[in-house]
Design goal:
The structure is a single chain. The chain has 14 helices and eleven strands. It is α+β, with helices and mostly antiparallel strands and 430 residues long. It has a six-stranded mixed β-sheet, with helices on both faces. The protein has a five-stranded mixed β-sheet with strand order 1-2-5-3-4. The longest helix has 21 residues. The N and C termini lie far apart (50 Å).
């Protein structure tokens, strides 16, 4: 019931303005004490509990990332092990796809079947789920990142209107009750506000207690075949566009290390990268992670996109492999450029490549769309429109070639690939 109550609370960015006065809180607590002394009195009244939760606050030095050791999409099971587990558990044959962004199931109800006959277009339930541990310090912003991330898989299918969202949230048992309430409340608000921005309604979900906080959800939409960009139609000659820069995982870790120094930070980064540089990188990372991929998805069909995936926990190379091996044709993705936030490039060099960012294997959280277009002309037209309509930068990052016979790699980074240094996000159009 408390989950439903919190969902009903106003979702506003100015959280300070929503806190009741100290006198009102004191009055409610006095009422609780009085009722507790009277055995005939009912249990805690709902308005008092809501008042208590609304009044909960966090210390000035609070960092949500202190309550987890695995941040954002870096908590994912490694790609090779996940695929092996799925193939073993489900008894899948080698090559059978287990890596698409969404589940796509044709509707089977009689009403849906009648409608499909009338419209001559098949209808599908497209659904996805994602959740993770905190990657940013502020609970509200973490909630927004969680929502942007779960919606992104629908956007990667070219579906820009989400019919329903369920929220999944874990309230941390490692926090005192007041902090736990404040964090859970603000993560919920951030999630709800970002879904509202996307035009999606949150209708329910599930909440649990857990030592580490957690946020995510389930996103679903009913879509016709003609409304989707199936991630299976790439062919040799396609050109690849990326709609957000890389480097978010290292960026959020550098920020935490600057405040809670680790041996790696002390050995390699301290004194060589300023706090101002780290803070600027962190703000670009949060802005990128919280940005919806909806605008980027809205233009895909217009310019004839053949396939798309979003870049998250497996890194750009891992998701490129997944995408290439899911195609109807036997193709390989060659990445010719890696657009990376400037501070992350510097940080990766200082820690001697520990995050494998320049190898395309660093996890990203709520990363951009990797889209295959049928020609250089279509890709450039898409980039120009994305900038003109939404002031969103994007980059040409690769190409699709025929896969060498016997190869199962699916994707590789070209030996002469460029590293494009992106000063900040939102970025200027390159």
């Amino acid at each position: 019931n408390s989950f439903c109550t919190l969902l009903a609370m106003p979702a506003k960015r100015d959280r300070e303005d929503q806190r009741p006065s100290v006198s009102k809180v004191a009055a409610h607590r006095a009422e609780l004490d009085q009722r507790a002394a009277d055995p005939s009195t009912a249990s805690l009244p709902g308005d008092a509990l809501m008042c208590e939760i609304a009044a909960a606050s966090l210390p000035d030095d609070f960092m949500l990332t202190d309550y987890t050791r695995l941040k954002g999409c870096s908590c994912k099971v490694p790609q090779d092990r996940l695929l092996a587990l799925l193939r073993t558990a489900a008894n899948l044959r080698p090559g059978q796809d287990v890596g698409l962004d969404c589940s796509i199931v044709e509707l089977k109800s009689k009403a849906a079947q009648r409608l499909m006959k009338q419209e001559a277009d098949r209808l599908f339930l497209v659904s996805t789920t994602d959740f993770f541990f905190p990657s940013v310090e502020d609970p509200y912003r973490q909630g927004a990142v969680g929502a942007a991330n779960v919606l992104s898989d629908l956007f990667a299918m070219g579906i820009v209107d989400c019919d329903n969202v369920l929220m999944l949230i874990a309230s941390s048992t490692d926090m005192p009750q007041g902090e736990r309430d404040a964090v859970t409340r603000d993560m919920m608000r951030g999630f709800l506000d970002k879904c509202k921005e996307a035009g999606a309604e949150v209708t329910g979900g599930q909440s649990v207690h857990n030592p580490w906080p957690l946020i995510g959800g389930v996103a679903m939409s009913v879509a016709a075949e003609s409304e989707m960009v199936r991630p299976t139609k790439m062919v040799a000659g396609d050109v690849l566009i990326l709609t957000k820069p890389l480097g978010t995982q290292l960026g959020v870790n550098l920020r935490q290390w600057s405040k809670r120094p680790s041996p790696l930070y002390l050995r390699g980064v301290e004194g060589k990268m300023s706090v101002a540089e780290i803070d600027a990188l962190y703000e670009s990372c949060v802005a990128s992670m919280a940005m919806l991929n909806r605008n980027a998805a809205a233009l895909m069909k217009e310019f004839g996109a053949h396939a798309c995936t979003d870049v998250t926990g497996f890194g750009i190379l891992g998701h490129s492999r997944n995408l290439a091996l899911s195609q109807d044709a036997s193709v390989e993705i060659v990445l010719d450029a890696l657009p990376i936030l400037e501070g992350a490039v510097k940080g990766e060099k200082l820690i001697r490549g520990k995050y494998k960012l320049l190898d395309g294997l660093s996890a990203e959280t709520s990363g951009g769309l990797l889209i295959a277009f049928p020609s250089t002309e279509a890709a450039e037209q898409y980039r120009k429109r994305l900038w003109a309509d939404y002031r969103q930068a994007s980059w040409t990052v690769g190409r699709v070639v025929a896969r060498p016979e016997g190869s199962q790699e699916g994707a590789r980074i070209a030996a002469d690939a460029d590293v494009i240094s992106v000063p900040e996000w939102p970025a200027r159009q390159p």
